[in-house]
Design a protein that fits this description.
alpha/beta; 2 domains; seven-stranded mixed beta sheet; Arc Repressor Mutant, subunit A; about 325 residues; Metallo-beta-lactamase, Chain A
Length: about 325
Amino acid sequence: MPELFYQKPEIYRILVPLPENPLKTLNSYLIKSENRNLLIDTGFNRPECYEALIENLKKLNVDMEKTDIFLTHLHSDHTGLINKIAHENSKIYIGKTDYEYIVENLKGLNWKESEKRFASEGFPYEIIERLRKTNQARIFAPDGIFESISLEDGDKFNIDKLEFTVILTPGHTPGHTCLYLEKEKLLFSGDHILFDITPNITAWLKVKDSLRDYISSLEKIKRFEIKKTFPGHRTPSEDIYNRIDEIVEHHKSRLLDTLEVIKEHSNGLTAYEIASLMKWNMRGKSWSEFPDNQKWFAVGETLSHLDFLINENKIVKFKSDDIYKYKLK
């Protein structure tokens, strides 16, 4: 049975399984109101996710004809089921920037460019080829472009008497958004702030410095009065301000570790090589044992830290045999 997480307003958490994914589950939230409901995020476009979500919505007696949907960001574990879940009368809300990325992803444009970028950073071609058939973000994405109401920072919308405010928080994705109930002081943080794991911050196409954007977005959330936070994964919490500080410190430490790895190799290293030498929380697995998907995420995260260090004038990027390398400035 879905968990009643908050009584006024009536908020339920639906745990949507994410098979073969280290995140395990997605927190999909259902906010019930007298005349209309709001569903936040959907799960992957795969049968296990669909069945779990539909079954739980039925237990809550949810009429999707009277339910709107808010998507916090473009990742497929949050958007994948949108075409299967939404009713023709459902309003679909999503941040403008991430919606534009989804459209380009579904056309295949972004994936081709991302593959080129990763290959130029030393990512092996054979893994890239395998990931075309196994990357969950790609194979469990929405099955077509959907119509949406594209939102920008500060936009508001209502579900009955509840007024929601959109907070643009780029970093985890270029147009990630959180949803804020100002009167109730409640925040739906998507993957911007998680409480027992740190969100993946990767290098995005057309984004100069994802990590800098992310840290700025964390500081932005500190300006809001928040009584309780509902994250996209794992356990909700009331202590968001300390968690923000912990996440910032994590990335400061990660930046120092990145510099140490580069410092030990004066001739320069590729991003893939740097990622292979970093310490990752993978339960004692060596880099060679990392699944392909986790290598993709790790290299993406490494690239975001390298972009940050370049913009801090700490390191330089140079080309060697058509592959980019990094060394201390």
